[in-house]
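User: I'm putting together notes for a lab meeting next week and I want to include a structural view of one of the chains we've been expressing. I don't have a solved structure, so I'd like a prediction I can at least talk through. The sequence is below, exactly as it appears in our construct file.
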Amino acid sequence: MQTIQSYQEFLDLSQAPLSVFIAKTKMCSVCVPISAKLETFMKDYPEIPMYQIYLEDVLEFQGQQLIFTVPTIVFFSEGKEILRESRFIDFDKMERLLEIYQS
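Assistant: Thanks for the context. Below is the predicted structure for the 103-residue chain, given as structure tokens.
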């Protein structure tokens, strides 16, 4: 999973047809297993790029994208947010979204 280093990099990458971002902090104990589960989950969708953003490193991301808790997983399609899951992540909802995009 590639790590985003700047808000501009995020803006550029979010323009893809579909992309996934996970916002987390370096001290978040919940973020580690959720990130691992997301990576395993996304192995079924290798064509969809996945990125991680550490809020300490990209402060602007938290404010501009209204990230109030971590972990937060956000799906973007051509620069528009289409799904957001925070804290209690519903992987079934994410799978339904990806099935729609696959068809």
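A couple of points you could mention at the meeting. The first helix runs from residue 7 to 13. Residues 74 and 84 are 4 Å apart (CA to CA).

User: Perfect, that's what I needed.
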